[in-house]
Amino acid sequence: MAYLLVIGTRKGLFTARSEDRRAWEVNGPHRLDEANDAGMSPVYTVGINPYTGRLLAGTESWHFGPSVWHSDDRGDTWSEPGTPPIAFPEDTGASLTRAWQFAFGPDPDTVYAGVEPHALFRSSDGGDSFDLVRALWDHPHRSNWFPGAGGAAIHTVLPGVLGAGRRSPEALTVAMSTGGVYQTEDGGASWAPANRGISAGFLPDEEPEYGQCVHKVAAASDGSFYAQNHHGVYRSAAPADDGWTRIEEGLPTDFGFAMVTHPHRPGTALNFPVVSQEVHFPPDHRLSAYRTDDGGDSWRPVNRGLPEDPYFGIVLRDAACTDGADVPGFYFGTRSGDVYAITDDGERWHQVAAHLPDVLCVRAGQV
């Protein structure tokens, strides 16, 4: 079995392949289009369709604007549709800034794209074209969704799940900054906030119905959710609309961006702490990952193989993932351009790549 990493950076797209998840062959930056600068433009989101193997990359050319490229040969060649695949209808008065997240299912041809400004798009042809999910765009809360420091983005899209014990092909959970968590049970026809228990210390009402600056939400194998908030780490063991519980005790800080859950063990997750909203460094200038195996009741550092010298790169919200294998691998990249991998039966990180541009997103899969 071979493994593929797709790595989006501030200056282009890279791929890495491995047979054992320890020794990696890194390729790139890939020139998505030899006729222009798209190959060296920022890539804010990547996706690997688990049904078809198609790769998607959300690019942002300084000259041509944002677009979505795809590859059907594991990243060797890339194509762009003849017309912009994601475009706002004229009556919205909006234009696409960038894509922030791709998610797949419940069938091979369905792809969701979370974008900036706050919007969700759906594709029924594998990502060649997308339509606006109008009910979320027209939601009455929209006027109160404001940009976070990272933009006005829907950055988390979780198809098929609403919380522990609640799964359905018609279900979808999204998270945005700053707006919070929203869910639909009817395929996107209606949406409701699901933020009870998540605080928003920057607002006069610290526990509003919506308006939280959620940085990332990850779904566990039992359907429960883990969330890294703008100050606060949370778990929702019941359906998300029943409330969230704080679980950051044992972490060096309650601030961060990324969260990854184990694909098979409900209580296992990885978190990547950051000092604070003002100081975007790892705590004590030591690159660290923290792991829980009991649903957030306790955390322990998993640092073997990571740099011991002072380190100043952090892990952004979409720059950590798992490959979903039976013995899963976990991966993350940093703003210092390093990428690391670890398998679930090991305690040592192995370096995949070094000295890349800022890593914005990472996705992994078996090929």
UniProtKB/TrEMBL annotation:
InterPro entries: WD40/YVTN_repeat-like_dom_sf, Xyloglucanase_GH74. It comes from the Bacteria. Signal peptide: none annotated. This is Photosystem II stability/assembly factor-like uncharacterized protein. It comes from Nocardiopsis terrae. The lineage of its organism: Bacteria, Bacillati, Actinomycetota, Actinomycetes, Streptosporangiales.
